[in-house]
Amino acid sequence: MKIALTYNLKRKDDTKPADYFSEYDSEDTIGAITSALRKKGHSVEAIDAEYPGIFSYFKKNRVDMVFNIAEGQHGKFRESEVPAILDYLNIPYTGSNTFSLALALNKGLTKKILKAENIPTPAFQIFSEGNETLDPNLKFPLIVKPNCEGSAKGIAISNVVNTKNELFKKINETIGFYRQEALVEEFIDGREMTVGILENGKTTIFPILEIDFSTCKNSGEYFYSWRVKEYQGDMELGLAPIFNCPAKLDKHTEATIKELALRTHHALGCFDISRTDIRLSRDNTPYVLEINPLPGLNPGASNYPLMAYAAGIEYEDLIEMILMSAFSRRKGLN
């Protein structure tokens, strides 16, 4: 097949905030996906989604399929930018559609759907102005997050607060800096899990990955903050969590977590792949935090490939499975 790989390239720019490019992909990831597709016999051209003539490119250069990892550039619906162009031009692409991508990026709307589907998620409140009355039913500690960001952008240890004064200070900082609503939710003290879904003719739920932060005590990081994600593996900074895959869980808890991940995947209308983040509380209750329909695909660092390896899937085969899932959908085979 003739494939175009659409991406946003992570780069360094001192004029931007430190986390500005966190959602974007590295040259290593782009190269790995391109190499994997070529090894499977496909013709591949990598297209930067920031290329100003991307619409004209696809209008003039027809391809059989787009392997899309582009995060988009601007606004609350940015992950839908490239898929919207491709939909308009009737060009098939891997992964979820414009609606699901836009929805999943909005944490508050996602959580409303989870609640409607009886999928447990931490109690929450959305703040638009920063002076709203706090829901008296919310229990401290609370965590404050930008409502429409990924890759833990805007999330640090200081975002976990224990008093109203701390809370409203952080809410207003978040609204002011990220120019969007702030999500406030109850912080679930417990274990961090993530679950990958792959549709490849059948639905595969990967072994659950647990991120153990017990080795991060020197840094004070005890959950997946932006610093942990950005500097993951840095021993000197104390940002080298342990990855256990499969997670050490009893059979009942394992089955419950996998079922919640699959239900979340279906509730948001995701296609081909997704990764759902879950916190397991001290009383062994799993809570869905969010879902990522565009999980990272770096072969050596991203959680999604790590789970695939634990399922016995090599990287090149994983990339081909994602591609063929989209191809089969296009042909109406699944």
Give keywords.
Dna Ligase, domain 1; 6-stranded antiparallel β-sheet; 334 residues; 13 strands; 10 helices; D-amino Acid Aminotransferase, Chain A, domain 1; alpha+beta; 3 domains; Rossmann fold; globular
Question: How would you sum up this structure, described in words?
Answer:
- The chain is an alpha+beta fold and 334 residues long.
- The chain folds into 3 domains: 2-94, Rossmann fold, CATH 3.40.50.20; 123-186, Dna Ligase, domain 1 (2-Layer Sandwich); 190-330, 2-Layer Sandwich (D-amino Acid Aminotransferase, Chain A, domain 1), CATH 3.30.470.
- The protein has 10 helices and 13 strands.
- The chain has helices at residues 27-39, 54-60, 81-88, 98-105, 107-116, 164-178, 226-230, 251-267, 303-310, 315-330, and strands spanning 2-7, 43-48, 65-68, 124-127, 142-146, 160-161, 182-186, 190-199, 203-205, 209-212, 242-244, 273-281, 286-292.
- The strands form 3 sheets. Strands 8, 9, 10, 11, 12 and 13 form a 6-stranded antiparallel beta sheet that branches. A 4-stranded antiparallel beta sheet has the order 4-7-5-6, with helices on both faces.
- Helix 1 (27-39) packs across helix 10 (315-330).
- The chain starts with a strand and ends with a helix.
